[in-house]
Specification:
This protein is of the alpha/beta class and about 260 residues long. The chain is about 40% helix and about 15% strand. Strand 1, helix 1 and strand 2 form a beta-alpha-beta unit.
Length: about 260
């Protein structure tokens, strides 16, 4: 097996809201190659989207939509019931369409779409929900790649319709044996040590596999690695990961870059 030559480094950004500031977007955009920008339902809003897209343009960072449940109070991390799939799909189309319009107004093309938070986790676990979310994305942006968590139903749904797909792994989250993320609040679920996170990412790339929290392994094709922008150690994590990869001769760049 030939060695992987490049990988994307992404972060969830644009998550400030009103007087409330989340993360250090400016610092992260000096490091990452792709940004997943909140679309106003779990965080952010029109002005924040515009500001973040402008920063992406200035830094040469790919800008993608980051839709979620309509849940500002819960930051999109509460598992809400999906009683009306058509209504959920309409919410996703609305968010992606709004982001694409704002990006276009700044001369930026929407590079990808990535689900946020609890909705992403639920879609990773459910083939039916994953298919519904991907169908909504294809309806509004049929040629835009879906950034999907590797080795999950969401990846399989995005691959099933022969649409564009970017497979994602997480630097700062622990995994279950089925490829899903260990629930936040569980001991060891979130990784704060930059050195450990960087070595995990390098191991994923070198071995094309992830070691789960119980010690088992599962295969992945890591095309993009995520560092959560709201992690207090996000900037340090992202910088350490990029330096570690580049020292090993791995090019850090956006997909297609």
């Amino acid at each position: 097996m030939s060695r992987q030559q490049s990988i994307d480094l992404n972060a969830d950004l644009g998550e400030s809201f009103g007087a409330w500031t989340m993360g250090d977007d400016a610092a992260m955009l000096e490091i990452v190659t792709s940004a997943n920008i909140a679309c106003g339902f779990h965080a952010g809003g029109p002005a924040e989207m515009t500001r973040t897209v402008r920063l992406c343009r200035e830094h040469g960072v790919a800008a993608g939509a980051h839709p979620s449940f309509d849940d500002l109070r819960g930051f999109g991390r509460r598992r809400l019931p999906v009683n009306d799939v058509a209504a959920l799909q309409a919410d996703l189309v609305y968010q992606v369409g709004a982001f694409r319009g704002i990006a276009a107004s700044e001369g930026v093309s929407m590079s990808h779409i990535k689900l946020h938070g609890a909705l992403s986790n639920m879609a990773c676990e459910s083939a039916e929900l994953a298919a519904a979310c991907v169908a909504a994305f294809r309806r509004v942006a049929p040629t835009t790649p879906v950034l999907a968590q590797a080795a999950t139903h969401l990846e399989r749904a995005a691959a099933a319709d022969d649409g564009k797909l970017i497979r994602e792994v997480f630097a700062d989250r622990a995994y279950n044996a089925d490829g899903t993320l260990v629930a936040r609040g569980t001991e060891g679920a979130v990784i704060h040590d930059a050195g450990r996170a960087a070595e995990r990412v390098l191991e994923m790339i070198e071995r094309q596999a992830i070691t789960a929290i119980d010690g088992t392994e599962f295969a992945v094709i890591p095309e993009s690695v995520c560092v959560h922008g709201d992690n207090p150690a996000a900037v340090q994590l992202a910088d350490r990961i990029r330096q570690t990869l580049e020292k090993q001769g791995i090019i850090v760049r956006a997909p297609g870059g």
